[in-house]
Structure formats: structure tokens, C-alpha cells
Design brief:
By secondary structure, the chain is an alpha+beta fold. Helices cover about 15% and strands about 30% of the residues.
Length: about 475
């Protein structure tokens, strides 16, 4: 988080890194450092990763319900050591959406909900459609919608109809944001499958090879459809200054070079390059748009209507593709945004703290205090997490909150943790209060050290064994 001198005017700045990638049922590459721009110095607060065509055979999908799929596992294993925790994920067959946030933001991400819509073959099997995640971030309602729309050149109208259907049918159990477009900020992305109309293959390739991408923009179907569809005009998109990301020969930077003859001998044709993979965003309009309201073209929009005490500004810093990945016939598309906002609150719902020195030689104590009224539950729990944990369920141990009545505001509650549940070898840990109703960690302690126990010494747990156990 980069706040710096802006604190004085009550504004904060958050960096959002987004990826959309049709992975064409491939297994993930060994390294996603370039994709996530982990070697770039600018700090990031959020990662939002939308994938399409994740391998979804029946047996594969069943196994993914039991354990994390290989793509989720790779991103979690890559981001967790850097302090990013998976906030939530949603999957519908080949569509997968993952949200990661810096550990310090977790108590301010609330009311997390996910949903999905099928639009494929009779809406069955989920081969096309949309998956979404919505939540409140420091009080600002945001929604992320990952779509895979109908394929083929002549289905531009169907793609728009499918997107409209997804927007109409998705709903959330939140009174003030029951639908996608009710949110203050919506990010719409995925394999939207819009093609480049009219131009022939030779003109397309010569324009791409000469870097004259602007010659193709007027025939991009999404840009064309936006001229006629008012609801599409509310979505912003940066300039398409990167090469079309579909269709490539796998493991190469060469556009589709397949034979123009099919195996049956009928005439086939190579896929024309297209910007199928896109990332757009929408700030909730101040009022219904009119034809007279022509906004300046810019990659920055604001929800400040003069009346809003807590406006939000979204600025796109980068919109590009990463050509270094070849496992799929699509190249991934990456966008970086800055979210500028004033926090509606900056106090967690629950204050959690360890008491005294912790080690596995004695029972330990936790205190927690509810600082603001919320829908707490006797099913809420406090987890002990090793710093670098992957998700809210990646705890070392946990303890239920008070079993009988729920605590009063500012009442200090003390919970005991059995010494047998405390890690023998110690290390850096954090305590987190998990709200079952909010599906999120609504309170985190400061990081603290658990001391190596005497039992660890007597049982001969030496560093080599430690490394072996932690793998």
C-alpha cells in the first residue's frame, strides 16, 4: 500500500494486478513470476486472476472439489510467501476466479459472496458463462466478473446477449448491492471472444507485424458493439496497444499456422488473430447516461458525484499481454490499476491478541474484543496461522469462540489454547478471528513469535528435520 503524503487529505492508494488467461486445458507453467510481475518494485495490494478452460473433465473436476486444482495451488504457493492470502475463489467447470490480498487488508474485506451463471450448451455443464466475486473493501462495494462467452466470428450479438443475461441473472444476498451493476466498481474480464471483423488474414498479420494495431481497432467487435449498446458504454477499456492474444501455435509466438485442410478433406481456415481476452471496468454512473453526455476519453474514471462522501477513483496504469507464456493457444492479458479511495472505516470488527509468551511447553491464552456490532456467531473461530499462510483455512490450529452467549461490545473474552496444539518448533505466527457469516477474517493480531519449546529440544528436532517436516 502506498499512502505517503496523501494521508493528510484522507485518501489512500491501492494497487490492483489483474490477469485473464484462457489456459486451453493446459497444466500451469513452472513459474508465474513474469505473469504476476513479482520482480517489479511497485508494491501490489491485490491480485485478481481469472482463468478460462481450466481442465474440467468429470474426474478432474471431482478431484478439484477435494483438493485445490493445479493452477490455484501454483498461485497460492507463489503468493503466500510474499504475504498474499487467498481471500476467496469460485469455480464453474473451466472458469476459475481467484482473489488474493495482502495480509494486512484482510480484516477490511467483508461480506464476501460468489456466484456463477451458465450460458453454454443449454446452460448445462458450464462450458461457457460467468463467475463472480463481490465484497466490501474498506466499505467500498466492488465486484469482479470473469466470463467466457460464445466463440466464432458471427456470434458477436450472442456474446452481448450472454453478457446481458449474466448481469441480469446474477444476484447476491446483500441488501444494497443485490446485482452486479449495483456495485461501486465492477471489473469485467475474461475470454470475451470478440473478433476482428471484415479484414482479411493478410491485412491483419501485416498490420500486427508492422505495429499498426490502430488500423484494426475500428473493426474490433467489442468496440463496434459499444457504439450501439448503452450498457456496454458504461464500461471503460484502455487502448489495445498489445498484439491480439489469440490464436497462437502452442509454445510459440507464431499465430495459427495449422493446415487449411481439415482431416475430412473439406476446406478449413486458419483462425484470424483477435483480441479475445480483455479487461474492462465500470464505475457506477452518477445517474442514467444520456446521449448528450459524452465523456472525455481517458483511462481514469471516478465515482465522485459531489454528494458521495466516499468517492473512488480507478486509474489504469498498464494494459498489456505477456508473450512469454506458450502453454496455451491464448496469451495472458495483464492490467494494473490504482484504486484511490477514502476508507469508510479503518478499525477491524474484532481485536485479537495473544497473551504473554507462547510455547508448546504450556497452555496459551488469546483475548478478543468485538469492537463493532456485527452478525457474529457461535460458529465463529480464532485460528493460529503461520505467517505466509495461504488462506483462511490454512491454520495450524483453531479454537471456537464462546459457546453460549455472544459477547457484548468491548467485552474482553479470554480463550485457552491447549499446549499440545501449539507448534513445537515455534516461529512467526498471527491470530485471526474468522466470521462464518461474513466468510472472512474480520480481525488479525499483530505478528508474534512462538518460542521453540523445551520439548522440541528434548525430542531432537534439529534444523534438517524442521525443513523436512515443513515441506
Amino acid at each position: 500500500m502506498s499512502t505517503g503524503s496523501f494521508q493528510s487529505v484522507g485518501r489512500d492508494y491501492f494497487r490492483l494486478h489483474m490477469v485473464t488467461w484462457n489456459v486451453a486445458t493446459a497444466e500451469p507453467p513452472e513459474d508465474v513470476t513474469s505473469l504476476l510481475q513479482l520482480d517489479v518494485q511497485t508494491p501490489t495490494d491485490f491480485y485478481v486472476i481469472g482463468l478460462q478452460e481450466v481442465s474440467a473433465t468429470p474426474m478432474k473436476f471431482v478431484s478439484d472439489l477435494i483438493v485445490e486444482d493445479s493452477w490455484s495451488h501454483l498461485f497460492m504457493a507463489t503468493l503466500a510467501p510474499r504475504g498474499f492470502v487467498k481471500v476467496t475463489s469460485v469455480r464453474m467447470q473451466g472458469l476459475l476466479l481467484l482473489i488474493f490480498a495482502k495480509q494486512m487488508h484482510l480484516p477490511y474485506i467483508r461480506d464476501i459472496q460468489t456466484t456463477y451463471t451458465r450460458t453454454g450448451i443449454f446452460g448445462y455443464w458450464g462450458n461457457k458463462g460467468g463467475v463472480s466475486v463481490r465484497f466490501s473493501f474498506y466499505g467500498h462495494m466492488v465486484c469482479f466478473l470473469n466470463c467466457h462467452l460464445a466463440a466464432h466470428m458471427n456470434n458477436a450479438l450472442q456474446r452481448v446477449d450472454e453478457f446481458e443475461y449474466i448481469l441480469e441473472t446474477q444476484d447476491f444476498d446483500i441488501f444494497n448491492t443485490p446485482h452486479v451493476l449495483d456495485h461501486k466498481v465492477v471489473f469485467w474480464f475474461g475470454d470475451l471472444n470478440f473478433r476482428i471483423a471484415d479484414h482479411g488474414l493478410h491485412f491483419l498479420r501485416s498490420s500486427i507485424n508492422s505495429g499498426r494495431l490502430n488500423l484494426l481497432w475500428s473493426k474490433d467487435q467489442l468496440i463496434m458493439m459499444k457504439k450501439n449498446e448503452l450498457f456496454l458504454q458504461e464500461f471503460e477499456e484502455g487502448p489495445l496497444n498489445f498484439k491480439p492474444t489469440y490464436k497462437f501455435d502452442r509454445k510459440s509466438d507464431t499465430y495459427d499456422s495449422s493446415s487449411p485442410k481439415t482431416w475430412l478433406g473439406f476446406n478449413g481456415k486458419k483462425r484470424k488473430p483477435a483480441w479475445t481476452d480483455r479487461i474492462l471496468w465500470r464505475i457506477k454512473p452518477k445517474n442514467l447516461p444520456s446521449e448528450d453526455d459524452e465523456e472525455d476519453e481517458k483511462a481514469s474514471t471516478s465515482a465522485d458525484n459531489g454528494m458521495d462522501e466516499y468517492p473512488i477513483l480507478v486509474t489504469q496504469n498498464e494494459y498489456t499481454s505477456d508473450m512469454s507464456y506458450g502453454v496455451s493457444d491464448h496469451k495472458p492479458v495483464v492490467a494494473n490499476f490504482t484504486l484511490e479511495l477514502r476508507k469508510c472505516f479503518d478499525v477491524p470488527l474484532v481485536h485479537v491478541s495473544p497473551v504473554g509468551v507462547w510455547s508448546a511447553d504450556q497452555n496459551a491464552l488469546v483475548t478478543y474484543t468485538v469492537q463493532e456490532d456485527f452478525m457474529s456467531s457461535t460458529w465463529d473461530w480464532i485460528g493460529l496461522y503461520k505467517v505466509g499462510f495461504k488462506s483462511a483455512t490454512d491454520y495450524q490450529t483453531f479454537a471456537w469462540v464462546r459457546e453460549n452467549e455472544l459477547p457484548e461490545i468491548n467485552e474482553v473474552i479470554q480463550i485457552s489454547v491447549d499446549k499440545d496444539e501449539i507448534p513445537l518448533l515455534g516461529g512467526e505466527y498471527v491470530l485471526g478471528y474468522y466470521s462464518t457469516n461474513m466468510q472472512s477474517l474480520v480481525g488479525l493480531s499483530a505478528n508474534f513469535q512462538i518460542q521453540e519449546s523445551k520439548r522440541a529440544v528434548t525430542e531432537g528436532l534439529i534444523p534438517e528435520d524442521i525443513n523436512g517436516l515443513n515441506k
